[in-house]
Fold:
Amino acid sequence: MSKELYTVTEFCQTYGIGRTTFYAEVKAGKLRTVKIGAATRVRRADAQSWADSLPTADAAA
Structure:
């Protein structure tokens, strides 16, 4: 069963990015987060949307 909400650490581990990049993406408005009390979470759907929006590597480059 897939999780509906990722912690910041889980998101970073799942998508192979660091916390600095995570917070930069949030600040830039590229990644949506939700708050549960003081805890920051990322919805699974928002995580997938973020991943789908990443640019692809140019094979010719």
About this structure: The chain has three helices and three strands.
